[in-house]
Amino acid sequence: MIMTFNDRIFGILMLLLAVAYGWQAQQFPEPFGGAEAIGPETFPTVLAIVLGLTSLYLIVRPDPDNGWPWGKTMIEIVVAIVALIIYTLMLEPVGFIIATTLMVGVLCWRMGAKLLPAFLTGLISAIVTFVLFNYGLELTLPLGVLEF
Amino acid sequence: MDTLNYLMQGFGVALTPMNLLLALIGCFLGTLIGALPGLGPANGVAILIPLAFTLGLPPESALIMLTAVYSGAMYGGRISSILLNIPGDEPAMMTCLDGYPMAQQGKAAEALAISAVASFIGSLVACIGLILLAPALAKFALTFGPADYFALFVLAFATLGGITGKNPMKTLLAAALGLMMSTIGIDISTGNQRYTFDILELYEGIDFIIAIVGLFAISELLFFIERRISDGDETIKVNKLKIKWKEILAIIPTSLRGGVVGFVAGVLPGAGASLGSFLSYTIEKRMLGSKNRFGEGDPKGVAAPESGNNGAANGALVPMLTLGIPGSGTTAVLLAMLVSLNITPGPLMFQQHAEIVWGVIAALLVGNFLLLLLNIPMVGIFVKLLSVPPKYLMPIVTLVAIVGIYSISHSAFDLYFMIFFGVLGYILRKIEIPLVPVILGLLLGPEMEKNLRHAMMLSDGDWAVLWSSWLSIAIWAIAIIGLITPYIVGPMLRRRMRVKTADEVTED
């Protein structure tokens, strides 16, 4: 039995999106100066129809699924995404060098590098990028807590 | 002789020391990007766009550097095909067929040298084709009305999946998604807010550079994690090059033919570089008849697909430069670059920004020579870099992408947006929704809507205007054929390509 859930579920989501998007387009206020032959809602309406029709096709004739990486791999992927989000949070308050060392280090480590080389790669790439940007290109990356 | 004049001016732009240096850097980075498996040309160019911005380069210099990256990536794709039997990018797939056997027979250096020469010839042929065809096409395109343009945009989306594409409906769906994203923000002609949800950052719309880098680079990182590729692959040792002139001369006719076939495939909508290299390989095999040893390490079997894919890469620039409508992911990214430099590609560019167009074309020629020079003696360096394990490489590539995006506007919001697009890209790729139409939609959306608006205003709201001229009818017809053919010939063509590359392709 070939699984076809991905396409069907995605198709349903896209159909909902098409309806919401198309409906929203009809709510745009009439532009200043009165309605013209073509308003801000015309193009979005056409797009909503195209998306709606193609997502219906997907629901009716789905392709076989690609497996999702459940379990450990999924956790690794989530870890990577969280690492990127935490990096963005840390970047300005904590500073570029520390945040980058941690982010690159964690990514290298989770991708299979040993701890020491992983964080060393992080530190070196952080310093090189920082120096290159702040002195070479004269763009300021935040120094954060390292600032005196 | 106008063309020649312009071309000389173009050389004037391309040969300034600064631009020459940038072209050299671009060629080097491009080859590297092309050589590393999984880091395709579109991805590579996308990561480098924000960096070109931060360098504060003038438009022609930025474009020259990125065109050099583009042609470099096409050269680079062959290195991992030959040494690892893994294509660095999709069009380099066919190069595995004879390149890898040659390397196994201890002729890796010869295979690399021959493929570099073939790439060079293929690019050169296609460059000449570009110089001859582009101005004529641009002149013709000036006669297009808004309705014709609208149809042309539809054509671009309809054929984007290519005739080997799997599911044209998914291409359309992806295009609709991208176009929908392009409508976010303040409507230019009425000032209405659309889909901004009162979020200040959305008023100006979605920055496509952020979307591109997120969709390509970040999703690639997630894919590497999923496939648990952490160590580099064993490369075949490169022997000392001992190639005779006779061997190089022997592949010249093959490369010339490959260049022409590739160029045509690149210009036509729906064909592209992968088909270019496939066709050139197949045609060459047939032409040589029983004399060929294709598949067992025939030098001509290396030359044919390489010249084909480089020819196609340059051919693909024709619709991008003259019509403003790219036919591939990488040319879409180059278009993004132009748009963000406030240059609207299309026929008018040839008049208003002649120095940029011809500077870029001249840069292609110059870059081609640089690449040949760079690739034969320095191939060892690329081979070394190829053995950097992805577990270190991918995090660093991610860092470069992040720094590039951050340096555009120093905003954390942009970074969250990029991460969001990365996750979205990962999910879309899992469901086999192609990413290129999404990006193209985001890019072309405003122009497409503008043309629709103009056409409809001229006709006072009559939709029939969209198919009222012969030209637009012809374009619609091609678009429809482009949508239907994949269902008919697609399975057959794909099967043949698969038989040829049997179990040599790591990912489908």
What's the gyration radius of chain A in Å? 24 Å
- The helix content of chain B is over 70%
Q: Would you identify the regions of chain A where 5 or more consecutive residues have pLDDT less than 50?
A: none
The largest pleated sheet of chain B is described as: 2 strands, antiparallel
Name the overall outline of chain B. globular
Looking at this protein, list some descriptive labels.
heterodimer; A: 148 residues; mainly alpha; 2 domains; 5 helices; 0% strand; B: 508 residues; two-stranded antiparallel sheet; disordered C terminus
What can you tell me about this protein's structure?
The complex is a heterodimer of chains A (148) and B (508). By secondary structure, chain A is mainly α. Chain A has 2 domains: 5-60; 72-146, no CATH class. Chain A has 5 helices and no strands. In chain A, helix 3 runs antiparallel to helix 4. The mean pLDDT of chain A is 86. With 508 residues, chain B is mainly α. Chain B has one domain (2-141, 150-231, 245-500). Helices cover 73% and strands 1% of the residues of chain B. Chain B has helices at 2-14, 17-35, 41-54, 59-84, 95-104, 108-141, 146-160, 168-182, 208-227, 245-267, 272-288, 299-315, 317-323, 329-340, 347-352, 354-375, 379-386, 390-409, 412-430, 436-458, 470-500, and strands at 185-186, 193-194. Chain B has a two-stranded antiparallel ribbon. In chain B, helix 11 runs antiparallel to helix 12 and helix 18 (390-409) crosses helix 19 (412-430). Chain B is globular. Chain B starts with a helix and ends in an 8-residue tail after the last helix. Chains A and B meet through helix 1, helix 2, helix 3, helix 4 and helix 5 of A and helix 8, helix 9, helix 18, helix 19 and helix 20 of B.
Topology (elements, then pairings):
The complex is a heterodimer of chains A (148) and B (508).
Chain A: H1 5-26, H2 42-60, H3 72-94, H4 96-110, H5 115-136
Chain B: H1 2-14, H2 17-35, H3 41-54, H4 59-84, H5 95-104, H6 108-141, H7 146-160, H8 168-182, E1 185-186, E2 193-194, H9 208-227, H10 245-267, H11 272-288, H12 299-315, H13 317-323, H14 329-340, H15 347-352, H16 354-375, H17 379-386, H18 390-409, H19 412-430, H20 436-458, H21 470-500
Antiparallel strand pairs in B: 1-2
Helix pairs in contact in B: 1-16, 2-4, 2-16, 3-4, 3-9, 3-14, 3-18, 4-5, 4-6, 4-12, 4-14, 4-16, 5-6, 5-12, 6-10, 6-12, 6-13, 6-16, 7-8, 7-20, 7-21, 8-20, 9-18, 9-19, 10-11, 10-12, 11-12, 14-20, 18-19
